[in-house]
Amino acid sequence: MKGTILVNPYDAYPVQKRKVARMVQEFDSLGVQIEVVENDGFVAYIKDGDVKCALQTDFVLYFDKDRIAARLLERAGIRVFNNAAATEICDDKMLTHTVLANFGIPMPDTVAGPLCYNPKAATNLDEYVCKAVKTLGLPVVVKECHGSFGEQVCLCEEAKTLKDKLEEIKTKPYLLQRYERESGGRDMRVIVIGGKAVCAMLRTNDADFRSNAAPQSRCEKADLPQEIAALCEKAARIVGLDYCGVDVLLTDPPKICELNSNAMFEKMETTTNFNVARAYAQHIVECVNKRR
Ligand SMILES: Nc1ncnc2c1ncn2[C@@H]1O[C@H](COP(=O)(O)OP(=O)(O)OP(=O)(O)O)[C@@H](O)[C@H]1O
Ligand SMILES: [Mg+2]
């Protein structure tokens, strides 16, 4: 079997490079030959009205977030892990909550920010802020729809700071969310592979409500309660994910915070001693074999 790991050409994070290396190592031990390819737009593109793809591969392990390339690869008949639709849903936090709604998945009350496509237009955010405070209470969690490592997530304690924040980010997609105080500074990261929750760690931050924010965030191995395992497995199934890291807020009942289609796993492996890369590689090999 031959596989391709597709990576983003601008992603220079050492942790991402180590993630690729771990996957190559585990595929190698399963006898799968891997080529690591940078997604430069020519991997799959449109020529004479059809998708042209030069990859000779049995699958693509997609370590990019470029939704177009994933779709083009699928249009070329290639099995992509995670599939393009799931990657797209997870790349946008508001889209994730929208897709998960109406399935009995507990999650914080969430409101989408109004779409602003003309930054020069005079905006009156007072009414929106007023409605948000009435609906969600204070403080309010503000999240840009695209982001990671807690960097695009903040807590606004009062209406004035909320309004200032929204003025600052109004041209970006964002959401407002009820602050789940019970879970402040704590959450559980769970890895789901092939529909099964396989390992979990508890993340704690005494200095910040964002349990994942560096440098104070601490991780420890966690027993996975059945209720949380079932919740994560159900959410992954609804979105159609082969692999994901689920962030769970530790409320009663537990609530889904977000799904990460491209979750890093180095910290999970060192904290729990669970071989995430091996489990993901095995899942991919099984899926590809079934498809043959
Ligand atoms: N509604 C909420 N109530 C309480 N805490 C929250 C809430 N939303 C997020 N948090 C905290 O903030 C952290 C970061 O939020 P979230 O996971 O949505 O974004 P992120 O940092 O961009 O994600 P990642 O780095 O995992 O891709 C969570 O791990 C959690 O500890
Ligand atoms: Mg998160």
Number of contiguous helices: 9
The radius of gyration computed from the alpha-carbon positions, rounded to a whole number of angstroms, is 20 Å
CATH superfamily assignment of the largest domain? ATP-grasp fold, B domain
Main sheet record: 5 strands, antiparallel
Strand and helix order: EHEEEEHEHHEHEEHEEEEHEEHH
| Poorly predicted spans | none
Q: Give the helix/strand class.
A: alpha+beta
Q: Which fold does the CATH topology of the largest domain refer to?
A: D-amino Acid Aminotransferase, Chain A, domain 1
The overall number of domains is: 3
What does this structure look like?
By secondary structure, the protein is α+β, with helices and mostly antiparallel strands. The chain has 3 domains: 2-81, Rossmann fold, CATH 3.40.50.20; 89-105 and 182-261, 2-Layer Sandwich (D-amino Acid Aminotransferase, Chain A, domain 1); 110-179, Dna Ligase, domain 1, CATH 3.30.1490. It has 9 helices and 15 strands. The chain has helices at residues 14-29, 67-75, 84-91, 93-100, 126-136, 159-169, 226-239, 266-272, 276-291; strands at 2-7, 33-38, 44-47, 50-53, 59-63, 80-81, 110-112, 140-144, 153-156, 174-178, 186-193, 196-204, 218-221, 243-249, 255-260. Bound molecules: adenosine-5'-triphosphate and magnesium ion.
